[in-house]
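From the shared-data thread, chain only:
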Amino acid sequence: FVPPGWSYEHDMELGRFLYDHSEKELQCGDCIKEHLSSIEVSSELEDCRVAHLTDNQPHTFWESNGPPGKHWVRLNMKKGTIVKKLWLMLNGQCSSYVPRRVAVYGGAPNRLQHLRTVLINENSYQDVCILRDMKTHLPVLEIRILECRDQGYNVRLRGIKIKSFWEWDLILNADMFQPAQLVRYPLLKGVDADVLYRRAVLIQRFVHLLESVLHYLIPLSEDSTGTFKALR
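Structure, as tokens:
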């Protein structure tokens, strides 16, 4: 049942509370080890292999070995991870090996979609954020190096960093809704904690159901715009 005096705005505020709480609780310190299943690369030199992308050593790096414009790094993510930020750790020892323009693709392995293209500042030789604030789990993230500086052929990366959390794996309990936790959510103040808990369970259940059918509803092709408007 709908609690007495409850409105759509209350649901929105409760949703914001759950989202904020889940991020604080579920962010992982070492997201590479925790959330990354494996890494593939387009090519590599014998002494500059893919393992150097995650060894956290400042003097090692991965170097590609192939034609320009054909270099990529593919991240296979563990089921249920949502990426908040993805960084490239650049190797500035030689300018022609530094990426100038990269594109990020994500999705199912056989159905990757373009997410973002980034033009890296010419003065950047440190960590560069190339993706942020994903809202859903993406099984694969593919970083395509479209161009290096000074028309360079191969690319060097010192590593990658990921900030991510598990997909809505929030364990709900009534203790979450104590008054001290609700200071920033005025519409929820004064509502019984048990009522908030039961409403939160309902919202979480709705989210799971919606996510399970969302890929049937949202068209992938731009040609389906009319259909999408009708569904909306």
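The helical segments are 8-26, 31-35, 193-217, 225-231.
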